[in-house]
Amino acid sequence: MSAPSPIAPPRPRLFCPLPGAIHPDHRQVENGTRRWARGAGLDGLPGHEALLGHRMGELAARVLPGAGREAVQLLGDLLLWLFHVDDDCEDGPLSARPAGLADRLNRLLYAAEHPGAELPPDPVADAVRDLRRRTDASFGPQAGAAWLDGLRVYFLSLLWEAGQRTAPEYPGIESYALMRLRSGAVDVFLPFLEHAHGIFLTPAERHDPRLAALREMAAFLIGWANDLLSYRKESSRPGRRLDVVTLLRRDGAGLSEAVSAAVGQYDRVMCRFLELGARAAATAPALGRYGAALHRFVRGFGEWELTSPRYGYRLGPHLLARAFADRPAPEAARPLGIPSLQWWWDAP
Fold this sequence. Notes:
Elements: H1 26-40, H2 48-53, H3 56-63, H4 69-91, H5 98-113, H6 123-139, H7 141-165, H8 173-183, H9 186-196, H10 203-206, H11 209-234, H12 244-250, H13 255-283, H14 285-307, H15 317-321, H16 343-346
Helix pairs in contact: 1-3, 1-4, 3-4, 3-14, 4-6, 5-6, 5-7, 6-7, 7-8, 7-9, 8-11, 11-13, 11-14, 12-13, 13-14
């Protein structure tokens, strides 16, 4: 079956009854990210000016609205760097060459692992050295190590995507959903949520299956929302094949049916995310604080996608307040229906 024709759907309305907020210093954070990018030499990279216009500092301010300014600034700089890497891996010369991309990502990973190592001049590698040093200095080496583990997971997803661009068959929804948990780089951000909010987990809390489920559901929600909200703008890009709407259409669904099905999947996970988070908070206050940080994370990404020029919506405050659905899709009380992720509903 050939790829579906790129027809732009109306903007989907997702059920996201989570409080939205933005850090009061968001403009200063945005300006700081621009200064950092110039100092790091990223301003000479392809697509840099467009990325600046997408307001990564504002995204950080929406994700960490109540954190200290230094933490928000560090996250804004990291976001700009990550989007540079992501866009280059998706559109650059190595986008469909997994072997070459593996070498490139391995060098970036090595720079992050060993900031003092002597490597050839490279502004992207030099920038990640700076980010690693600042993360260690701000939150401690344990946070830096956790951030590095998240980067490894994210890079694995980029290699999977590169292989899929030239694969003879499209991935199934289950395979795609599992990798989408990684490809949004959520694992890179999680240490920031914890340390920027002063959340200290005991070993038992850190390994609580409810917390693991909440983390994964947050990653799913961010990934599915991005697929839905970016589809209108990006469906016409040549070779686009890795988003939930395209994959559902490959299975025979029409555009409206595919969008509706993906929105329903999002709403099912959102309802379980809220339910499990409330139950965890009632028994473990630290898990409640972590869950609240995840709430701001999910809502912040959604609000940024609707206000940033990146996806073409640019909603102002009045329209943004009405951009999310008041109630979930009718089938939202049911589990997702993806066997590998059923354990989210089985968690106590």
